Amino acid sequence: MSSEQFFTREQTYASRVYALIKPLSAKDEAERKAYGSLAHKLPILIRTAGLAQALAFVAARNKEGTPQRRLLAHLEEVLQQTNLLAQGANLVERSRTASFEEYMRLTEGSLQALLWFKRFAQAELKVEAGTEEEGR
């Protein structure tokens, strides 16, 4: 018998996202709120405007090093770890240049991963939906 373990995609998303969010619980309240607020809002923005436009909007409105940019980097990392995005690829750039089929996979994967970001933002960062902190 093989001792190799298999995990569902949801289990993989949950464990990867948890590992990224848990250290943020030690950050100050403003940083947790900014990150958690975007975790709640980004899926809605993706469904409304599309993946490429939503990611470009968040990237353009937030400087490097902000909690919002950290969420984009974390999302990119999770998609790379689940093989939906090539290692070293930039999610914002790839969403603009991907074929239709790949774009749909990236959108679906992003939404699935963001569900876990949202859940752990509530559980670990104590940020509920409707928290008004965008870090504009």
Which key features would you list for this structure?
136 residues, mainly alpha, Peroxidase, domain 1, 6 helices, globular
Descriptive report:
With 136 residues, the chain is an all-alpha fold. The chain has one domain: Peroxidase, domain 1, CATH 1.10.520. The protein is built from six helices and no strands. Helix 2 packs antiparallel against helix 3. The longest helix is centred in the C-terminal third of the chain and has 24 residues. The chain is globular, with a radius of gyration of 15 Å. The model has no long low-confidence stretch (mean pLDDT 92). It is found in: Cytoplasm. Belongs to the CRISPR system Cmr5 family. It comes from Candidatus Viridilinea halotolerans. Keywords: Antiviral defense, Cytoplasm. One of its GO terms (cellular component) is cytoplasm.
- Which percent range describes the beta-strand content? under 5%
Mean pLDDT: 92
Shape: globular
How is the CATH topology named? Answer: Peroxidase, domain 1
Low-confidence stretches: none
Number of domains: 1
Helix content: 55-70%
Sheet having the most strands: none
What is the rounded distance between the termini? 54 Å
InterPro entries: AF1862-like_dom_sf, CRISPR-assoc_prot_Cmr5
Subcellular location: Cytoplasm
Protein name: CRISPR type III-B/RAMP module-associated protein Cmr5
Organism: Candidatus Viridilinea halotolerans
